[in-house]
Amino acid sequence: QKEVEQNSGPLSVPEGAIASLNCTYSDRGSQSFFWYRQYSGKSPELIMFIYSNGDKEDGRFTAQLNKASQYVSLLIRDSQPSDSATYLCAVKRGYQKVTFGTGTKLQVIP
Amino acid sequence: DAGVTQSPTHLIKTRGQQVTLRCSPISGHKSVSWYQQVLGQGPQFIFQYYEKEERGRGNFPDRFSARQFPNYSSELNVNALLLGDSALYLCASSFSGGQGYEQYFGPGTRLTVT
Prior knowledge:
- The complex is a heterodimer.
- In chain A, 0% of the residues lie in helices and 55% in strands.
- Chain A has no helices and eleven strands.
- Chain A has strands spanning 4-5, 11-14, 19-25, 32-38, 45-50, 54-58, 61-66, 71-76, 85-92, 98-100, 104-109.
- In chain A, the strands form two sheets. In chain A, strands 2, 4, 5, 9, 10 and 11 form a six-stranded mixed sheet that branches.
- In chain A, 39% of the residues are buried.
- In chain B, the strands form two sheets. In chain B, strands 2, 4, 5, 6, 9, 10 and 11 form a seven-stranded mixed sheet that branches.
- In chain B, strand 5 and strand 6 form a beta hairpin.
- Chain B is globular, with a radius of gyration of 13 Å.
């Protein structure tokens, strides 16, 4: 079982729709959860982080965390073509390393 | 404020050579981590340094080494390069290495080994 699992996609959504990206993790002790956006050929850019169960909203982005189900998701409202990228889920436990998933490729169709 | 900086941007080396990559963290950040990312994969953890001490090491051979300097900048060294070392090498900084502190990535160094 992979430590952090994501569907590789591509996930295709029409412009203006809600994109839903999902991630599961295996370490129940994970405490910090991050979503990074990575454009082709570029480095990852932090877009959301969440530490407590529930929802966290920032602009068009909402991160959702359910520790009991070991599940974290990212919702992107009013998706734009500029949101087309690979989205990386990452988890961390205490002072231990950050572990990344392989990423989900999102395509927003104009 | 300046973000994480890395140098060089691109590098081409031949098998067996050695390479040194450099990273300067965001001002005030004391922790630096190094990652290797190959095409189609997420970043793989190589090292974490906090306050100039190694705090974690990933599953990489001893050919990989790193250090952190008093100004919190860091170097990653790779000896006896193999073709498989070709990748994007990412440096990330955070205020602390612990819980509750998010990491920010630099632009990366693209290493090609021929």
